[in-house]
Design brief:
Elements lengths: L1 E4 L5 E6 L3 E3 L3 E3 L5 H6 L3 H19 L7 E5 L2 H5 L1 H9 L6 E6 H6 L3 H12 L3 E7 L6 H7 L3 E4 L1 H4 L6 H17 L2 E4 L5 H8 L5 E2 L10 H4 L13
Parallel strand pairs: 2-5, 5-6, 6-7, 7-8, 8-9, 9-10
Antiparallel strand pairs: 1-2, 1-10, 3-4
The chain binds guanosine-5'-monophosphate and manganese (II) ion.
Guanosine-5'-monophosphate binds next to β7.
Length: 234
């Protein structure tokens, strides 16, 4: 799913989203299979499949000078997976590769081990975003320690902003947390023009949601970006 610059509305990156093309039930979103995958301790394997496939496909299509940022949703087991480190060395992508962590991952898990792991991954070149920000139990202290590159504001906070002054104030306060931390802010779940315009006049610098584009299959991505971004050979 494309992510756009909040002023120009031009694509700056993509969030990689898992889908399961099921033989009977059709195309399934992660909410249909991730909790089972987690019970079966297969989250890390799924995250790793998604990572390898997207990195390989995007490396083949985007020219090295214009490679957009790719963001991946990562589970706690995947963060701790030693293969993430080997993948980082083996699969080179010329653009920024960002890992999205749920607020709950690192705030529940106060483990210093996780924080140290994140520091190692950051040294390997990954950047970090806090996903669904505003939906967990935000510890500002833990946020400062994590020092993420970006916060992603939960779409449920974005959806009422066109209708409610109180909702707008709340979103502005949350955006201000990002500003105080000196990190980028992405608003998710932007579905209407009014929401997009309101957010484009705030500190928020990246927007994502159905108003700009629904998630699309990889094959459609090349038609959405400037032709200069595509490799001559692709
Ligand atoms: O938890 P996370 O923020 O990574 O979830 C992203 C999910 O949100 C994706 O599965 C995607 O399909 C969905 N999504 C993306 N944009 C929108 C939107 O504008 N509205 C709604 N309701 N869902 C969206
Ligand atoms: Mn996400």
């Amino acid at each position: 799913q494309p992510q756009v610059d909040a002023r120009s509305f031009e694509i700056v990156g993509f969030e990689v989203l898992a889908r399961w093309q099921h033989p009977e039930h059709g195309l399934l979103g992660p909410q249909r299979f991730l909790s089972t995958a987690s019970e079966m301790q297969m989250e890390s394997q799924i995250d790793s499949m998604v990572f390898r496939k997207a990195i390989t496909e995007c490396s083949g299509v985007f020219s090295p000078d214009e490679a957009p940022r790719l963001s991946f949703n990562v589970s706690l087991p995947r963060i701790m997976d030693p293969e993430l480190v080997t993948d980082a060395h083996r699969l080179h992508y010329p653009g920024v590769v960002s890992l999205e962590l749920l607020e709950t991952i690192f705030l529940e898990e106060e483990s210093e081990e996780v924080m140290m792991r994140i520091d190692t991954l950051r040294d390997l070149g990954f950047d970090f975003q806090v996903d669904d920000f505003g939906s967990g139990r935000a510890s500002i202290i833990a946020l400062q320690r994590l020092a993420p590159d970006r916060l992603k504001i939960d779409g449920r906070l974005v959806s009422p902003i066109a209708e409610s002054e109180a909702a707008r104030q709340l979103v502005l306060s949350i955006i201000d947390i990002g500003k105080s931390l000196g990190v980028g802010v992405t608003a998710e779940g932007v579905e209407t023009k009014d929401q997009a315009i309101f957010l484009s006049e705030t500190y928020c610098d990246v927007l994502q949601g159905y108003y700009f584009s629904r998630p699309v299959p990889f094959s459609e991505i090349r038609t959405m970006v400037p032709t200069s971004w595509i490799r001559k050979s692709a």
